[in-house]
Amino acid sequence: MTGEKYKIGMVLSGGGARGFAHLGVLQALNEAGIYPEVISGTSAGALAGVLYCDGYSPEEILKIMKVDSRLNYMRPVLPRFGLLQISGIAKILESSLRAKSFEELKIPLFVAATNLNQGKIEYFSKGKLLNPVIASSSIPVLFKPVTINNQSYVDGGVMDNLPIKPIENLCRFFIGSFVNPSGYQESFSSLIDIAERIFTLNLFKEALEKSKRFDFYVGPEELRKYSVLETERADEVFSIGYNIAKDLIRTTGIINVLSAPEEIIPKSIS
Hints:
It is a single chain. The protein has nine helices and ten strands. The protein is of the alpha/beta class. Strands 1, 2, 5, 6, 7, 8, 9 and 10 form an eight-stranded mixed β-sheet that branches. Strands 3-4 form a two-stranded antiparallel ribbon. Helix 1 packs parallel to helix 8. It is globular. 46% of the residues are buried.
C-alpha cells in the first residue's frame, strides 16, 4: 500500500450519544494490546478521537463526557440556524484538552467536517483543534454551524460518516467502529425527533458498503434502541461497544493477525 506510515488505523463514525460505544470498543482493543496509531473520526467519533489522541484512556473519556442531563451538552434556543446550542460540549473540551492544536496530540488525528459553503467534505489534521471538532459534531438543523476561516461547517457525517479516506493510504490495517444502526421507529413526538431521524438515516446509508473496507469492523445493532441525544445512558452504550468488540476480538483472531510478521499479514479477517 503506497505511502504506508502506520500499521493500525482506526475510523470512528458519527452517531451522537451512541458514540460512547466507541469508547467501549477502544477499551476492549486496548485490553487486548491493540492500540491504533492514527485515528480518523467524524462527529461523535471526532469527540472520542480527540480525547483519546490527547492521551486519555477510554474510561477517563467516559468520565469526562458523561453527564446527568443532556442539558449539560445542549440547550434549546430560538430557531434561526439551529434548534439547539452545543456550547456544553465546547466547554467540556476547552477544560479537558491538553493539546490546543492537532500537532500537539500524542496520536495523529483527522477530523471530518462538512463545508456548507463549498458543499464538500474536508478533513482537518493541522492547526487549532477545538473549532474543527465542534464543527464535526454540529448535526445540521439541530445545531448551529461553526464558522472556520469565513466558511460554515456542520457535521462531517453529512458527507462522510466513516472517514477512512484521509488515512486509507497511510495504514496497513484498518479498524472501523460504526455506532449508527438504523431500524423501525414507531413514532415521532417533536421536530427534534424528526430532524434526528432524518440525519441518522443519512448516516446509515453508506455503512454497509464501507464496512467491507475494514479488516476489523464493529457495528452494534443493539444501539438502534438509543437516541443520538440520549447522553444519560452513556454507561449502557459504553458496555455495548465493549462487550461486542471483546467478543469479536476473541472470535476473529485479530490478535494473531496483528502479531504476525508484516509480510504475512492477510488483507482482511473473515
